[in-house]
Specification:
Keywords: Cell membrane, Heme biosynthesis, Membrane, Transferase, Transmembrane, Transmembrane helix. The protein is mostly helical. It is 73% helix and 1% strand. Strands 1-2 form a two-stranded antiparallel ribbon. It binds protoporphyrin IX containing FE and farnesyl diphosphate.
Amino acid sequence: MIVTTADKPVTLPAEWRDFLALTKPRVMSLVVFTGLCGMLAAPVPIHPVLGFTAILCIALGAGAAGALNMWYEADLDAQMKRTAKRPLPSGRMDRQSALHFGVGLAVFSVVLMELAINAVAATILAISILFYVLVYTVWLKRRTPQNIVIGGAAGAFPPLIGWAAATGSVAWLPFLMFTLVFLWTPPHFWALALFVKTDYANAGVPMLPVVAGERTTRHQIGLYTIPMAAAAVAPWPLGLTGALYGVASIAATAVFALFAAQVSLRTTQADDRMRPEKRLFAYSILYLFFMFGALVADHWLA
Ligand code: HEM
Ligand SMILES: CC(C)=CCC/C(C)=C/CC/C(C)=C/COP(=O)(O)OP(=O)(O)O
């Protein structure tokens, strides 16, 4: 709700709210934040207007990817409690509008990035949109429990895009940040998948807990956390950041590892409320915000 100067409450028209919902704004806020931090941690400062434009392009591109995901998956979304009220499965919007919106936004974001920023950033943005829509959504999601391991790369590109927007190239530090998000995605998602398993099973989506069971999923969460932690703390010993990031990353990653170990080593009861899994999922989001915030703080303050 927006409040005008006359104090009259004004709400967004319902149709606008539905288009906004297509962009998955909450998930995308973290994607955009990692892109912003990749840009702000670069050694070359970017002009604020260009910086704003680059972040806008990442936000629009990510939103487009979300809309195309919802366009393709309306049938799946209708079968899951968590997603059934989305604009398409609820019947508030027709699929063609979502398709036009998604394609239009995707093309606009990439073209604007190319014209206003540079070809490297535009190319990586195009790759991440195509990866999320074609590789994850269309190809892998309904076929293999490794869907999010491979497809999850899409959500890891934004730090590289932000860095490339500022510098016109890529480097080891944003590549490590890519690796961090890439290896973070399995524990992030599988923690959630453990407590919404029934939804995925009902919809016939082969997520790991559905196909391989809880025990394997717990082990996999633990296994992915090890290289993730290494990628998270590597920048300081490699001389790519200062001690501020070093200390912050070690502390935050130790907490992540603790929560992941609790999930990984646990056996569940029939009436389990999945508290450790919910805690790991919630913390995974805070963790990534914190780590990228620390990277920028280290760059500017240290
Ligand atoms: C293929 C990889 C991923 C999968 C399958 C996945 C899946 C999910 C799911 C199903 C949710 C539940 C929230 C909802 O839609 O209401 C969620 C939440 C969330 N995800 Fe992921 N995720 C992935 C990667 C990422 C990445 C790369 C980021 C950001 C860098 C991210 C950020 C978030 C955030 C911020 C939330 C919380 C949203 C809220 O508060 O409603 N996710 N994720
Ligand atoms: C810059 C750019 C283009 C970024 C791509 C965005 C991206 C890959 C975001 C993270 C992935 C994500 C939202 C997964 C949700 O899974 P799902 O689609 O299976 O979730 P759902 O069941 O909620 O639809």
